[in-house]
Amino acid sequence: MNVRLTHFGAMALAIALATSTTNVFAQDGTKQDMRAAGHDTKSAAVDTGHGVKTGTEKAYHGTKRGTKKVYHKTKHGLKHVGHNIKKTLDPHANSQDSHHQ
Prior knowledge:
The protein has two helices and no strands. The chain has helices spanning 2-89, 91-100. Helix 1 (2-89) crosses helix 2. The longest helix has 88 residues, at 2-89. The chain is rod-shaped and about 130 Å long. It starts with a helix and ends with a helix.
């Protein structure tokens, strides 16, 4: 019976060690999983930030180009309106135009 108890004790000790070792590895695995999740979250946030920056820059440049285009077209149109008003209001401008034609 003494041999069986020693054998049983050795088995119990082996099971206890295996269980505690498994728990340690499981905890390390959990820590590593949490660390990896944190890195993935950070990476996703950085990628999102870069995407927002790029989109904002494109929108800014597009608005800037559109504004310049409207400005130049308005300036050009007002120049013609100014000439037409001058022709309408200045009687000599109309007579000079008719002499040149």
